[in-house]
Amino acid sequence: MANRELQTQVEAAVLAELERVGPEAFNKAEIARQFEGRGAGRSSIYRWIDGVLKSGKAGQHVARKVKEAVQKRAERRPDAPAEEAAKAAVAALPAVVRVEDIAGNGGTIQVVELLNKAIQSVEGVLKAAHTEDGKPRNGKMILSAVEVLRRCLDTSVTLYEAMRSVNDYDRFHAMILEEVAKESPETAERIVMRLRQVATNWGG
User: Fold this and answer.
1) Nearest-angstrom CA–CA distance, 95 and 97
2) Confidence class of residue 1 from pLDDT cuts 50, 70 and 90?
3) CA-to-CA distance for 176 and 199, rounded, in angstroms?
4) Which CB contacts under 8 angstroms, 24+ apart, belong to 105-112?
5) How many domains does the chain have?
6) 12 lies in which domain range?
7) Is 65 inside a domain boundary?
8) Among candidate residues 47, 15, 43, 45, the one with its CA nearest the CA of residue 193
């Protein structure tokens, strides 16, 4: 009786893990490790795991979860359950790091303003380091100012590329949202489940 209860727990753990990470990333050893020393031998635990994998229970479990998710979304949005699932699919994608996340409260605009001020300051230093007729007055000051200007320009290019990358990522999200919303609620839910598994396996 005790072994039967333990077998039920193993089977439940297998199904939960398959739902979480998908069949490709499923690791039998991880499941077996959870149940070692609890009254059943290692070979029995592996036999129970293999039994679930070969029995078709995994497919039935996924189908049941998809159906439950569709029903819940249909209760919330009877007019557009697939659209709700599409939003969940986008939410499951890895989040992009935006410039404002790094820049802090001031955001991108303040970063650009500070860069412009820095460049204006460098231009003032360069002007002061030259005579009125444009000849170098302080070579060391000129070289230092030129190096600071170069770094400011590098930062500006990096900022521009980061902003363009974020815009591309946003368009990618919008495309996924649009395409998933076109599918049946069941297909949309399967896409959501798969994206969550991918995100989990990639550490997110």
Assistant:
1) 6
2) very low
3) 15
4) 108/159, 108/163, 111/159, 112/159
5) 2
6) 2-55
7) no
8) 15
What are the tokens at 191?
Answer: 């896409």
- Give the tokens for residue 115: 């860069």
Residue 21 or 88, more confident: 21
Residue 27 is assigned to a structural domain of this protein: yes
Of the chain, the percentage scoring pLDDT greater than 90 comes to 2
Residue 185 shares a structural domain with residue 127 = yes
Higher pLDDT, 93 or 170: 170
Place of tokens 């005790």: 2
Q: What's the pLDDT band for 106 if we cut at 50, 70, 90?
A: low
> Which string of DSSP letters, residue by residue, matches 26-91?
--HHHHHHHTTTSSS-HHHHHHHHHHHHHHTHHHHHHHHHHHHHHHHHHHH-TT-HHHHHHHHHHH
What percent of the chain is predicted at pLDDT more than 70? 72
Using a cut of 0.70, tell me whether the model's pTM lies above it.
no
- For residues 106 and 192, membership in a common domain is answered with yes
Residue 137 DSSP symbol: S
- Distance, CA of 143 to CA of 85 (rounded, Å): 58
Cα–Cα distance measured from residue 19 to residue 22, given in angstroms and rounded to the nearest whole number: 6
Regarding whether 40 and 103 lie in a shared domain, the answer is: no
